[in-house]
Design a protein that fits this description.
Rossmann fold, 35% helix, alpha/beta, 116 residues
Length: 116
């Protein structure tokens, strides 16, 4: 995934006018994008801001700490278990298909211009 972010950022760097921010599909892709930005002699976030998703472990310890979108893994696990149990022992009042929204949280770090 990091390699995908790197390759995608290399293509974006060729676009004129140059982008000034990138929201990657996940944190590894965002890290790959940052590598391509640095390789091009540009600075994160001064030239291009970067945000990922998933809040990977140690994302705050990168050369430029990564801003990311996170969500409660505890709540995600509870909802997954509830949906599974509803399928195993069907609840007559439960819909056949259910949509669950777990509210995201933006964690602002230096890669998007957050505090040092």
């Amino acid at each position: 995934m990091e390699a995908d972010g790197y390759r995608a950022m290399k293509k974006l760097l060729a676009v004129k006018p140059r982008v000034d921010a990138v929201f990657a599909a996940n944190d590894p892709a965002a890290i790959g994008a940052m590598k391509a930005i640095w390789e091009a002699g540009l600075r994160v976030p001064d030239d291009i801001a970067v945000v990922g998703a998933g809040d990977i472990a140690l994302g705050d310890l990168l050369r430029v700490p990564l801003s990311t979108v996170s969500w409660s893994r505890d709540q995600q696990g509870k909802e997954a278990a509830r949906l599974l149990l509803d399928r195993i022992a069907p609840n007559p009042s439960a819909d056949k298909f259910q949509s669950v929204v777990i509210p995201p949280q933006l964690i602002v770090r230096r890669s998007s211009g957050g505090p040092e």
